[in-house]
Predict the structure.
Amino acid sequence: MKAHVPRTHDELKVVTFYRFQSLSGDQLARLESRLHESAVRHEIKGLTILGREGLNTTLCGRHQSLDLFVAEVAEAMGVPNFDNIKTTWVEPGEKEPFAKFVVKVRSEIVTLGRPDLQPLAPHTPTHLPPSEWHKHLSERPNKQVIDTRNTYETSIGTFADAICPEIDEFRDFPEWLDARIQAGAIDPSQPTYIFCTGGIRCEKAIRLFEERGFKEAYQLDGGILNYIDQYPASKSPSLWKGECFVFDQRVAVDGDGHASHHYSTCPHCGQPAEHAIYCVRCDSPAVLCDDCFGAQTADAEPRVAGATCSKNCHHHWLRSPGVKGKPQRLGEMRPRRGT
């Protein structure tokens, strides 16, 4: 456990939480309006996904203001509080995770393509807190640990010996799981442990495992972020390896939960990036992911091969190879939301 660090009211913090709750169309409209009004009043930034099955959000704001905002959201949803809030702090000098406040209304608050699949009640025996998760993974033999996240997330970090799916979107997870079971690579009779970033994907994924007859399946309560909070890499024996992709402008957090100093966001696709380049067209610096860097520098047409800093420069370079352009004013490209 990390020692408690007193915080002041004007420090920035990030909170993530979700709630599965049936909402009517009228309730969704009222809640969306209330969220926008409260966010402006309390100067809150972040992203909220709303749907008929509930709410999924990551928010950033000043300590006291954010507490008040979250209390107002709970009141608007008719609940006393949210019991799965996870908090991290924006340390001095770190980039703020969000530029503005956004609400998106979707058919599912975590997109699996199964709006009929209702999660289990929170904190059931299938939900393992970080201490139990750590104990099980450290001591139990003949287990299978399954990462439910996308390839661009698993590529920069995961738990030791985890099975990582080859998927680009969470909606592809059921097909991948079925194929692995059929191939004998995943065994429903073995103890199975699943995890994701903040816990919400596992709320639905655990039901998939239940449907497919898994005898013993568990999920990491609160996800990777909760585990890192309880088992920071610099202060405890952690089973987490690498960094954890997050869906904001930090791109990733390290094993202690601090904003990544290693990864940036690829301006072409939004995935984690670490190839530092100077744009072949405008000479602006940028950082590209493996795929985009490889595709551009190994182009079949040698005359257009070369890494570019933006989609705009890439487009113009393909049209007019060798013609230089003005330096780009690059904004931060927001990665895809998939928690």
